[in-house]
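hi support,

uploading two proteins for the ticket. first:
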Amino acid sequence: MTVDTLTNQARLHNASVETRHLSLALQGGGAHGAFTWGVLDRLLEDERLVFDGISATSAGAMNATVMVYGYQQGGRAGARAALDNFWRRIAHAQAQTPFQATWWDRLTGNHALDNSPAFLWLDFVTRVLSPYQLNPTNWNPLRDVLTASVDFEAMRRAKLPIQLFLCATNVRSGKVKVFGESELSADAVMASGCLPLLFKAVEIDGEAYWDGGYMGNPAIFPLIYRCGSPDIMVVHVNPIMREALPVTAGEILNRINEISFNSSLMREMRAISFVTRLIDDGEVEMDRLKRLHIHAISAEERMRDFSVLSKFNADWDFLLDLKEVGRAHADAWLKENFDQIGRRSTVDINKAYL
């Protein structure tokens, strides 16, 4: 059977499937991005879903870039395989370090960061010494993993099957920078995930960039302005709510990061809520403003149990566990909410974000 025959059969099959359009908004969160991997793996498995665009930050930007590249090269199966290979490479990169040390260990020479004193020591060092002193060669294993997983020249040669928006923070202006299809590069992805206490700012065209989580984790507005679908699925990695009061230095720092990395998303959700209310109250006409349907997949009950250090844990078993959690939550969401795509929001914006 020829490739053309298989392609035609796939087209006939897809034509008979009821499809719903959806855009994705992927948060960052280090190794916790393996949860997002699982979510994407399950969503890609469902041929009823058509993805219009993805806005993503940090680990989310890496997931998004790898997924779109794989989709461009081999459709849904290609996207799933590309994501699997990417996360395997991450685990392999960690396994190659001495004593299977984490990336934080490699940078600091410390191999006992699982206890609180070591973490406090690391926090102290990264506050006293900048990455220009602590990591003068700007060593970052993720760049090698990324360039081994994605052929950026091949991506740029053909139109992307899914619109891609990568969020970074402009160091000098403090504004969010969204890298689009024409600006796609390994540098753009690395800029989106540049942790300023560990790595030098990524410079692109004379501008310096840090992690996009500070100003857009992820930015929703590109999906509103550039994508046709009114449905946006937010894949959460950072817990919004914590009942327990953080009391240790590590817990406090972790909660500060969670709040700051969720703040830009919550501000955009407030604006979406305001516009939705104007539409519902008849204050504006539907043809003037776009009524959005917001959806969300998260595993806050699991993510709350992880320490901040687990974001740097690339052990394969840990990554696989997070992937399966992501798949399970996406599967449950699809079973309960698929029919609502294109009709209404499945998350209460006011309750969840405001």
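and the second one:
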Amino acid sequence: MASLYVFENGVQISRMPLASDMVTVGRLKTNAVVLDNPGVSRHHLRIDGDPSGTIFVLEDLQSLNGTFVGGRKVSACVLKNGDEIHLGRHSILFEDS
């Protein structure tokens, strides 16, 4: 099962298993992953899983500071095992075991 590991300043603060649902990341409490970080938009990014739960697509939601995967700015990409997503002082590791 795929998971997101959330880090703040290099320290893991949470883990979220992923299914085929949509997951949103941002500052607002309505997001599945809430990041208290002024460098993160209210609705920063979304990750959609396909019905089989084997393919996950990240989409930047027109965030002000952008979303970086593997050190490059992306508007959308298919996540691969080990991808690191960077949002200000937060990073999210995508693992698909």
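thanks. also noticed: Residues 27 and 42 are 4 Å apart (CA to CA).
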